[in-house]
Model the fold of this input.
Amino acid sequence: MSKLPEKYRFLDLSDYGRPVGHWIASQLKSTFFTPIHVTTMFIIAGIIAIVLMINGYFITAAFFIILKSILDAADGELSRLKNTPSYVGRYYDSIADFLLNFSFLLTFWYITDISIVYMFIAFFGIQLQGTVYNYYYVILRNSVQGDSTSRIFEDSAPKALKGESQHMVNIFYKIYDVLYISFDKIMYFMDKDAKDSPPFPKWFMTILSLYGLGFQLLIMALMLSFNLESYVIPFFIVYSVFLVVFVGLRKFVLK
Done:
C-alpha cells in the first residue's frame, strides 16, 4: 500500500523491497504478528548480517542486509493492512535504523583498515542523506493527504493513537529525538521553506530516493558481494557531497 495518493506516486528506487514486504505483510495480516514484531525481525536480520560480515561470509551477509530492507518495508505494510498506525512503531523503526546503520559502518571499519574518523564521517553522511530524503518525502505526503504517521517537525511527543499508551509514545519519542534532532535541525536550516513549496515533481523524488535507506543498504550489499568492503566508507563520504545538489534543486528550481 502506497503512502501517497496515486496521482503523486513516484518510482522510489530505495523501496525495491516493498512488493515482497507487502506479500509478507499479507501473510501476517490475520495472525498475531504485529508491525512491532516485524521491526524486531529486521533488527535480528541486521545483527545476523553483522555477524556474517565479521566472519567473512560477505555474500550471505549481503542477503541478510537486503532481507533487513524488505522487512523494513513489511512492518509499515502490515500496519496499514491491519489499520493499526502507531507512533511507538514509527519511532521504534527509526531508532532501529539509526543503531543498525551505525553498527553496519562500525563493522565495515572493523573488517578493513579504514580510520575510525572516516567511519564517523561516513555515518554522519549516511544519516544526513536519509534525513534529506525523509524530510522532502514527509513534506510531500503531508501536502497531498498521504500517510501522516511521520510529521514534518518532530518537535514534541505526539498524542498517542488508539491502542498505544501515551507513556510509551513519550519514551520512544525522547529516544528518537536524541538520535535524530541534530540531523533534523541541519536539514531545516538548509531548507526551512520547503514546506511551503508546491508538491515536488516525480522526477525529483525519484532521484532523491537514491538517498533512501533501502538504496543505501543495496549499495552496501552489492559492494560486499563484489568484495569491495574497503570502499564502502569512502564511497558514502563522497556520496554525501551531492546533498547540496538536491537541496539546491529544491530551493532554486522547484521553489
Summary: The longest helix spans residues 116-143. The domain at 10-252 is CATH 1.20.120.1760 (Four Helix Bundle (Hemerythrin (Met), subunit A)). The radius of gyration is 18 Å. The chain has one domain: 10-252.
